[in-house]
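Students often ask what a holo structure prediction actually looks like on paper. The answer is less mysterious than it sounds. You provide the chain, you provide the ligand, and the output is a string of discrete structure tokens encoding the 3D arrangement of the protein together with iron/sulfur cluster.
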Amino acid sequence: MSKQLELRLSGSGGQGLITAGIILAEAALKDDKNAIQTQSYGPEARGGASKAEVIISEDSIDFPKVTLPNMTLALTQIASDKYIKDISVDGTVIVDESITLPETLKAKHIYRVPIIKTAINEVGKEIVANIVALGLIVGLTGIVTEGSLEAAIMARIPKGTEDLNRLALQKGYELAKTLQK
Amino acid sequence: MSKQLELRLSGSGGQGLITAGIILAEAALKDDKNAIQTQSYGPEARGGASKAEVIISEDSIDFPKVTLPNMTLALTQIASDKYIKDISVDGTVIVDESITLPETLKAKHIYRVPIIKTAINEVGKEIVANIVALGLIVGLTGIVTEGSLEAAIMARIPKGTEDLNRLALQKGYELAKTLQK
Amino acid sequence: MNHPLVEGFFRMDKFPHIWCPGCGHGIIMASIARAIEKIGLDKDKVCIVSGIGCSSRAPGYMDFNTLHTTHGRALAFATGVKLANPELEVIVIAGDGDLSAIGGNHLIHAARRNIGITTICFNNNIYGMTGGQYSPTTPTKEKGTTAPYGNIDKPFDITQLAIGAGATYAAKTTAYHVPQMDKLIETAIRHKGFSMVEAISICPTYYGRKNKKGSVVDMMTFLKDSFIDVKVAEKLPPEKKEGKFLMGEFINKAEPEYTEQYDQIIASQKK
Amino acid sequence: MNHPLVEGFFRMDKFPHIWCPGCGHGIIMASIARAIEKIGLDKDKVCIVSGIGCSSRAPGYMDFNTLHTTHGRALAFATGVKLANPELEVIVIAGDGDLSAIGGNHLIHAARRNIGITTICFNNNIYGMTGGQYSPTTPTKEKGTTAPYGNIDKPFDITQLAIGAGATYAAKTTAYHVPQMDKLIETAIRHKGFSMVEAISICPTYYGRKNKKGSVVDMMTFLKDSFIDVKVAEKLPPEKKEGKFLMGEFINKAEPEYTEQYDQIIASQKK
Amino acid sequence: MADSKDNLTIHINESWCKGCGICIAFCPKKVLGFNENGKVTMLDRENCIKCGMCQMRCPDFAIFLGGKE
Amino acid sequence: MADSKDNLTIHINESWCKGCGICIAFCPKKVLGFNENGKVTMLDRENCIKCGMCQMRCPDFAIFLGGKE
Amino acid sequence: MAKKVKFLQGNEACVEGALMAGMTFYSGYPITPSTEIAELSAERLPRIGGKFIQMEDEIAGIAAAIGASLTGAKAMTATSGPGFSLKQENIGYAALTEIPVVIVNVQRGGPSTGLPTAPGQGDLMQAMWGTHGDHPVICLTPDSVRETFDLTIRAFNLAEKYRTPVILLTDEITGHMREKIEIPDASEVEIYNRIKPEPGSDYKAYKVVDGDIVPKMADFGSGFRYHVTGLMHDETGFPSNSTKNAGILMDRLMAKITDNLDDIITFEEIETADADYLIVAYGGTARTAKAAVKKLRAEGIKVGLFRPITVWPFPEAALYKLSEQVKDIIVAELNYGQMKLEVERVVKNNAPVRFCGKANGEVLTPEELIQKFKEVL
Amino acid sequence: MAKKVKFLQGNEACVEGALMAGMTFYSGYPITPSTEIAELSAERLPRIGGKFIQMEDEIAGIAAAIGASLTGAKAMTATSGPGFSLKQENIGYAALTEIPVVIVNVQRGGPSTGLPTAPGQGDLMQAMWGTHGDHPVICLTPDSVRETFDLTIRAFNLAEKYRTPVILLTDEITGHMREKIEIPDASEVEIYNRIKPEPGSDYKAYKVVDGDIVPKMADFGSGFRYHVTGLMHDETGFPSNSTKNAGILMDRLMAKITDNLDDIITFEEIETADADYLIVAYGGTARTAKAAVKKLRAEGIKVGLFRPITVWPFPEAALYKLSEQVKDIIVAELNYGQMKLEVERVVKNNAPVRFCGKANGEVLTPEELIQKFKEVL
Ligand SMILES: Cc1ncc(C[n+]2csc(CCOP(=O)(O)OP(=O)(O)O)c2C)c(N)n1
Ligand SMILES: Cc1ncc(C[n+]2csc(CCOP(=O)(O)OP(=O)(O)O)c2C)c(N)n1
Ligand code: SF4
Ligand code: SF4
Ligand code: SF4
Ligand code: SF4
Ligand code: SF4
Ligand code: SF4
Ligand SMILES: [Mg+2]
Ligand SMILES: [Mg+2]
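The corresponding structure tokens follow.
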């Protein structure tokens, strides 16, 4: 992985991808890295696709927006259609397995992964798909340490959902392993 | 008289001095002169003194405000106290006879004239004191022709008050004659 | 095959609309179109005006002369439209915030003047567009993002406010009671002078979530169970009215309409 | 010897005030001071807030913490004063234009919130300060400089407007009925929550002249003859009430006051 | 304020009086009138009942009941 | 609009349906349900009484009565 | 051709001009020193079948005027400083939606309530920058009663031609002074009316066609059912989140002005041909400057006056040229040097830019200007 | 000293800063993209005994804040473009009456409703000129979350010190991005509180005494019964029609700023020491510029950044000095060149001033800026 991760997370409004972005960034801070998180707001969000972006770097980050991400993740078709196109040639695209990707899409790695299904079937709650995704991303990139990520997750989630989220994270790591072989 | 008359009329709100100023200016227009009329507005007018200024000139008038009038007229003590001081050394001051003037006042002519009393006693309506004043001013200065002045008055006054105003004008001219001898 | 109402009265290419799943605004917007259809108004002579808010996005979908203005000012713009061309049937669509927070002054003055504008308030008791701040109609104790400890404001009864301001037609209805809503909106549009229909909407995304009102269906069920018609209520014993809200026509009276009055001035002054 | 009220409650060096001969505003201003005297308020803890207008000049004469704000916004400023320091007795003085034209929105929201501010409206049915344009309370058919052919607007009943908005205390009185005015203003100041007294004033200079209402005394006589107390009116036969206006207390009820409610939130949240 | 009515009498501040005539018109005893300057004046001090209505209705604080001295 | 009820049937525009469930919950005959995409579907066309309440309450114009063809 | 000679206030002349320009709608809220404009409009409009309405505040005043304009009316609103501040949001709305409307600001003294009955010129920069966001601005400043008449007509013409709000920025001096004015015959006056689409034609509400300067504008109610929004929109008028569309729209709006400076900008030059010194002044203060120039010329001093009539867009090119010729420039205005900033920007190092002004509610007298002039030279 | 490291949005940092500065009162009306400031204030203020109120509109939002400030509270209101336009009248009121208040404008895209969720910097000039009449203005623009925190504190300090409204002009970029921020310990932060008169002392509400910068300010309710008015007033605070008094007051108000530029103005210079070329940028766009400078320097191009932090008063002197050194200046901002005008005015002929910006709702990327930079050089 390059020193600087530029990540774009997208999906529908309720999927918690903005929270996922924040958690990842906070994990990076725990690792003494720099991080910036931005997102798209507003009426587009009603019904449409929502987007969170995270930059993680060892250096200070001047320009806060992701222009050409080196990693994108999309959980819904609409989000994918809108945001997946932009990816650096040596970048990684991750989408939920339910999503159809354009044939023209070019990236170093393109993964279709059962993120939502994992959340539903293996963790038991669709709502933790975002945490599964985080496990997946960190499993793939190692951009933050696992300890920091877990701590960051625990700090942001509602009380009483710790185990659920820990499980989701685990499943995410496991998904990553299936891809890396 | 100099080619340019700079006149300041002052009194209390209801005395019609702004109308008098407009009438004089309109008479000047009829004589193919130029004229500008300005006035002080606003909350000061409540209860306090009101002021109308007229510049009449053969030439075009650039600066519209009177800075140092060459003629001032005041009908009330308050107005006199506030506005009579500024007068060019070769100017003319006219006040109602009820008014006490500061001893320091310097002007070429200083007249105390029974304008209001004339309106009340000889014309029969205090409200026409403004027209008496106009007769007086024009009688003294000849700044507009008598024909134009009468026409201008007739154009501005309520229907049915023509004779009253004509009489007031006449009385004004008469007052002027008493001063000129 | 297309939805006949959409085909006849909406800008089909703008659909599906941006409102969230279960948002009540779409129900009310449809009702307005049905009332226009029922009355048989000429589409070219209908002007829909709104301010800013989720509700205020409605005009963009409606196939008339449509004007999406600044937040709160719809009635002020509409007053200009109506007075300049009284031939137009002017309908204002406004959220509770748009109409009664920033726009409250224009509401009371339009009502006072009795100008021939029909106002339909999409009242979801919240600022939807900006993400769930409490509005002047959020009930006391309920939460908004700016009322994290429960709202201490007393809510407006917008219908009573309009009446206090002099409205000659004012009615209230809900997104559940659609047949009644159709009728009230129709009557309001036919009314000469200022008319307002306060249509209680639902915002499941913010109001519902923030206040644990359950699902969209739960919120609709609440409307169903909580509102009773004033006329019905008159005949009910007190215990049956407890905790209920009243809906229906609250005032309907005839007074001179503003633009007609103005035309009389013109008639008397025009040379 | 000096006027005892002036000596005790006014800024004597600012007198005589700028109002025109016979302007009713001075009568109402005096009544406010008498009510404050009667209640025995600490002058340092009284804050008088106004907007812009002839009436709004009153605070400049009154020896309290006085705030002359922007046109129409007195209640908005006053809300900040009161909420920031609930210990202050906040009284708003506002003209009919200031309160119900440009300031209408702040009136209805202050009333809705039931914030502990007392508003005294100096209602002369005209914009006095700017020279006699019709106001939202100018009766239909009367003239203003901007209604040369007679006003076609329907006037607000400001008291009813405040009630429609949720006011818990609202009363009306006139510059003629001073003993009643004293009492109503006193009650209003003592009231917990939002209170408003609409005091009908007279503007002989513009409203009177423009509408041929005769002398100052004629205008006062009109007030004397035209207003009857609501309580009296209740017992009168219809023919005696014809053409009369009602005055007195229109609403007086107890509801939680805003700043007290807020203090409860603080109490529950403060660590 | 503790004065009994006996010690009170009407005072006039002529320089503040704007001559509106309200006090005069509504004085129940009709004891007030205009002077030559158009300001209010007490015509009949004896018959003043010290009701204070003139004071209450004067918009200009120009007439009031005060101690005799 | 002149159609008699006989010629009418429920149409669904799945791409506009947002799956809010209002029509389903308040259908007096309970003939509507969700499909696997979470969109509305007609479960029992026979028993639909064509009352139009689903159409009236659908916020998304996604369900309506229209000609059979 | 019989000309009507009248003796009018600037505010009255504004209404006469508006009526000649075709004004049929006025909505506003009274405020000193602009109120006469409302009062005379209230009297005159019904006589020609037009409409006057006093709204509940200034925000509603401009809103109603914009609404009326959409139905095809030529609409105006007038105010002074505090009201002008309140109108700012909707000025931006009219600019973005391209709805013609004329806004008169008769400037008074000071910020806030200030000195309501005194003159001032403190709203010059506000006329350009008062509303949020970039937007096209045209602002005209008359220096006489007659010019108030003319520029009111021009304001309507420019509003119609460029589909934009036009600000007539007068001041208490010109607004309230009475002066002789010859009202021209209607036949002598050029009136521009907005271009409307042909009935039944294909119509995209915000598409510029046929080499027009702006999109054709259909009256609401005339059979073109279109959408107007203060959100960024595309050529159809419907909201668009596309930054590309937003850029196209904004560029077009700004270019309406910058591509047509020659048509929009007017100014007056007095005695500049051989001038060594230049006074820059506008509005009521230009009268002071004219008197001063006469007196200084009489003393043999080669001084000229540059008077921007269109103050926004600012007549940069003309002033720049003059600045190459003169030794010194003095800007005279009733504020703390607002136009001076613009003059400094434009003339760069060509000549020093001095300032003569005040903002205390007084007018500047010719004597004061002359004194300042002599001090610095 | 334990520092709290947090990951916050700029809007959140603004509230943290305000609380550290001593904010006890917030009143406003929600608007994207500023709403988080209201939301967090609503949550936090009651916990410290402070007050939050959501008013009926933006006009009331600032009015209530000013009213609260008069009782001694440190008060803030936040908004975005449309609301900022509505607040203008009362900003002027606070300026003339010298009541401290902090106004945050989180800028969004476009004029009117525009692009509510997109960034923009189109309100720069409005921050200076938005209200009618001349008036003192202080306006600060942060370029990071941490600086948003710091400048909010500074805004309160300056408001208290100079008794004037202070505008914190941020933008959607800094307002909504989350970044690492170390919250300093309260003991490390300098807080300035308005000077109040001694209890029982002789007090003229608008008289400057003892070499103070501004008049002492008594809390309403503290025993000094004085008068506050938006009319021109004398030292006692009572309205005065005297033009002399008006002049004295206005001169004093304007001089508060112009006499204290060194205290008020701050700016950042990056790599300017040997710079041949200069980029001028502020707020969120400065981040773009910083990235661009790094990349250009890496290519060996001697470019520096001048970043006004205080944008009003504009750091003229520092920029002028730099302009004598560099060959070319490029101003980068998200509008049609608002600061560019100011830069042009200041640098005169010293260097050509170029512009790189857009106002379509997008941020400027370093690549775009670099490209433009290279084009013109
Ligand atoms: C002048 C101004 N202030 C604030 C906003 C932000 N804003 C947009 S819509 C809205 C409230 C929407 O609430 P409501 O009117 O109830 O409509 P809803 O979205 O709930 O349908 C607000 C505060 C704005 N656009 N303009
Ligand atoms: C924003 C603004 N708009 C308009 C004005 C002008 N103005 C000052 S007072 C006033 C109306 C006064 O009427 P009212 O409130 O009834 O008070 P009155 O003078 O009759 O006592 C107006 C329109 C202003 N000062 N500020
Ligand atoms: S946020 Fe609320 S009001 Fe807005 S579209 Fe969604 S449900 Fe409807
Ligand atoms: S103008 Fe009217 S309201 Fe104003 S002071 Fe005179 S009488 Fe009173
Ligand atoms: S106190 Fe009563 S009786 Fe005496 S003068 Fe006054 S009003 Fe008349
Ligand atoms: S009421 Fe007052 S102002 Fe009027 S006449 Fe009597 S004393 Fe004079
Ligand atoms: S028409 Fe009536 S019965 Fe048929 S599906 Fe709709 S709601 Fe159910
Ligand atoms: S009501 Fe409409 S959107 Fe909701 S489930 Fe039924 S068809 Fe779908
Ligand atoms: Mg709402
Ligand atoms: Mg009034």
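Chains D and A do not touch (no CB pair under 8 Å).
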